[in-house]
């Protein structure tokens, strides 16, 4: 058995004990239909969340614009009504299950979230062998499976590789989306300003109204409309977690797993290990990166059934703090490391504040002797 196989095999036992830990938490909390009612159940296979616009979101025909524009026949902006005509090509037997067969609403468009869909023509550019995007989809699947427990579905590929990044203008704070081919990095995030839009040539770039999809995406309940949980790219948590966990189980994308940010010096690392690395023994106050703790569930019961998005944020915050425990960790310091495609980034950014406040109160971050900050991190609900 090769080294790489050993590395891949090890986390599977982690996963089993994570399942046991999660079950125990649910039993202890008596989590029943009441808590999980609004939350789709989580399963190992992403495919169970695949589907069209029937996931607690009420997508209207005008919501359905293709966010990919891969195909020359892309139905973007065609104003197709719900349940409009399906392109006549037969489906190619993809096991994705992404098109519902009932001929109802959403048949021509694949739902990613409220506000994000892609059309059947673009779907086929990826799914059909010989089409331009199929090769990279196949390569991506292989890479994905090395560090993931979730099935490499087409929808996951779209969310991970094809959807546009969204970022905030450093001047006006409005959210804008980049072209699909433009990658958002920690640095480009810090420099971004509104681009001049050709169809708004007469007004200043920052005066162009924000996309109307941004506001709903910054609401907590928007996450319920996602067909698959988004995963963070190149999270700083990678620095600590390395190959000990399946990336998708700790909120990180398996195929965007390069973290090259500032790392603590070696002396500091001896003492600071935010996460429990199973074969290295238990260290007091370490977090399990793949399981929510009791108090976290009490505070964030909505994540009880589907913890990935919470874990992604919490692990990112804990990693950043451990990399520099001599300065207050603020929202502004976290945001540049919060990278993922799609409107999910808007949602993550607004939820980050709540998680950072909680972790500060819990004593996971922002403890010790620190220079005071001007604006309090912890809101009135905690004081
Ligand atoms: Zn939809
Ligand atoms: Zn399209
Ligand atoms: Zn602007």
UniProtKB/TrEMBL annotation:
User: SUPFAM superfamilies recorded for this chain?
Assistant: Homeodomain-like
Compositionally biased spans, kind Low complexity: 38-50, 90-99
CW-type domain location, by residue?
Answer: 160-214
Q: Is Coiled coil there in the keyword field?
A: no
Stretch list, region Disordered = 38-61, 85-107
Q: Which Gene3D superfamilies match?
A: 3.30.40.100, Winged helix-like DNA-binding domain superfamily/Winged helix DNA-binding domain
Cite the GO molecular-function annotations of the record. zinc ion binding
* Top-level taxon in the UniProt lineage: Eukaryota
GO CC annotations, alphabetized: nucleus
The UniProt transmembrane annotation reads none
| InterPro entries listed in its UniProt record | Homeodomain-like_sf (IPR009057), SWIRM (IPR007526), WH-like_DNA-bd_sf (IPR036388), Znf_CW (IPR011124)
- Is Zinc-finger among this UniProt entry's keywords? yes
This protein is called Uncharacterized protein
What organism does this protein naturally occur in? Plectus sambesii
């Amino acid at each position: 058995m090769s080294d790489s196989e050993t590395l891949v095999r090890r986390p599977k036992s982690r996963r089993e004990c994570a399942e046991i830990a999660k079950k125990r938490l649910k039993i202890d909390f008596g989590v029943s239909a009441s808590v999980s009612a609004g939350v789709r159940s989580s399963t190992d296979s992403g495919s169970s969340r695949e589907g069209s616009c029937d996931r607690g979101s009420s997508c209207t025909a005008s919501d359905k614009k293709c966010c990919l524009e891969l195909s020359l026949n892309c139905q973007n902006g065609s104003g197709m009504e719900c349940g409009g005509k399906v392109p006549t090509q037969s489906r190619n037997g993809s096991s994705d299950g992404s098109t519902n067969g009932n001929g109802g609403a959403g048949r021509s468009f694949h739902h990613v979230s409220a506000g994000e869909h892609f059309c059947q023509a673009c779907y086929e550019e990826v799914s059909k062998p010989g089409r331009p995007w199929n090769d990279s989809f196949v390569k991506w699947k292989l890479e994905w499976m090395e560090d993931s427990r979730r099935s490499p579905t087409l929808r996951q590929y779209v969310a991970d590789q094809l959807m546009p990044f969204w970022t905030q203008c450093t001047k006006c704070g409005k959210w804008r989306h980049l072209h699909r081919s433009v990658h958002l990095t920690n640095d480009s995030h810090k420099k971004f300003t509104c681009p001049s839009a050709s169809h708004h040539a007469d007004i200043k770039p920052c005066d162009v109204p924000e996309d109307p999809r941004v506001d709903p995406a910054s609401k907590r309940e928007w996450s319920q409309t996602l067909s698959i949980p988004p995963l963070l790219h190149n999270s700083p948590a990678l620095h600590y977690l390395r190959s000990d966990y399946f990336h998708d189980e700790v909120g990180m994308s398996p195929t965007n797993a390069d973290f090259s940010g500032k790392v603590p010096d070696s002396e500091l690392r001896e003492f600071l290990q935010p996460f429990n690395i199973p074969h290295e023994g238990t260290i007091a106050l370490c977090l399990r990166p793949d399981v929510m703790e009791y108090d976290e569930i009490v505070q964030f019961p909505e994540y009880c059934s589907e913890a990935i998005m919470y874990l992604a944020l919490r692990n990112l915050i804990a990693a950043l703090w451990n990399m520099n425990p001599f300065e207050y960790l603020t929202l502004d310091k976290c945001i540049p490391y919060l990278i993922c495609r799609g409107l999910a980034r808007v949602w993550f950014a607004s939820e980050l504040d709540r998680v950072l406040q909680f972790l500060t109160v819990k004593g996971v971050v922002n403890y010790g002797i620190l220079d005071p900050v001007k604006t309090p991190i912890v809101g009135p609900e905690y004081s």
